[in-house]
Structure formats: C-alpha cells, structure tokens
UniProtKB/TrEMBL annotation:
PANTHER family: CYCLASE (PTHR34861:SF11), PTHR34861. Belongs to the Cyclase 1 superfamily. Pfam families: Cyclase. InterPro entries: KFase/CYL, KFase_sf. One of its GO terms (biological process) is L-tryptophan catabolic process to kynurenine. This is Cyclase. It comes from the Eukaryota. GO terms for molecular function: arylformamidase activity. It comes from Aspergillus niger. SUPFAM superfamilies: Putative cyclase.
Amino acid sequence: MGSTVLWVENGGIVGRGVLLDYASWAEEHGIQINCFSTSSISVSFLKEIAISQGTTLKTGDILFIRTGWTHAYEKLSAEQCQELASVKVPPALGVESSEETLRWIWNEGFAAVAGDMPSFEAWPYQNTDFWLHEWVLAGWGFPIGELFDLDRLSQECRKRNRWSFFFSSVPLKVPGGVASPPNGVAIS
C-alpha cells in the first residue's frame, strides 16, 4: 500500500504549518537568488531565517520553504519556459543535500516538508549519500511537497508578523499511490 493512501485514510496531512521565507530573507541580506541554478540553502541559513522571523520550530510542524521559484517561473517568457523544459536535468534552487540537513529535519521532528520549488532539495542533488528524497520520503515515510504557491501566504504571514498557521491537505485516494497534487489550505 502506498503511503499516499495511508495519509488519506488517516485524515490527510493536517497540522501546524511554519513558513521560512528564504526569498525575502535573502533579499534583505543582499543575497542574489537564481532559482534556475543548482543553488543550495544550508541549515544555517534556515536557522537564521527562523530566528529573524521570530519563529519557534516545534515537533510535528509541517515545514514550508519559500524560495521565490514559482514567482520567478511565472515571470519567464514562453520561449524561456521552453528553453528550461528542454534541459535534460533542469537545475533548481533548493535545500542542501547533506547529512546536516537530514539530521536537522529529523531532530526538529517535522511531520512533512514542502516548498515552492520543483524539487525540495537543490537539483540536481549534489550528494548521492544524502539524497533527501530517498531518506525522507522512502526511508522515513513522510511527505515532501513541491511547487506550492507560497507568495500570498508569505505576504499574509509578513502582514500578521506570524509565520505559523493551520495547514490541511488530503491527497487523492489512488490505490498504490505514491504521489498526489496538493490541495492544501493554510488558515492563519
């Protein structure tokens, strides 16, 4: 039985969501972001973002990371989109593939991780020993969300100066399913 079916049968993915806004933090710190390059976001950056936002991470949190990828993609011309699609392994900004990242995710006790990029980790991944997808999804059995539109959520969190919210998503019920488009909702 695929893990997606288990999540559906147990009420979906529901809990406290926390947004770490890397895109805004990087801009505030003069860090240039190229969403279409293999650029890694380190654990030290993620910890700094949480501190700068006044965000306390808790066991069971559903972690969301906003990189600005979806916003950057939506600004591409049709020709640029086609060019990106023609790359055999298109590079993308994401979380660093490392033992440190895995230990941080595990030690923080996150229930799920997600982001606005096509791969939660920088792509193509840099370290074959610590490919996050294999460890987190297949090894630990908890969900990874990708291509979430986090721009409006980021604006709302900034306006309220609160980066946590109630999150709920029920994946499609497909026998043997291992993936589903998200139908998530964040309530602040």
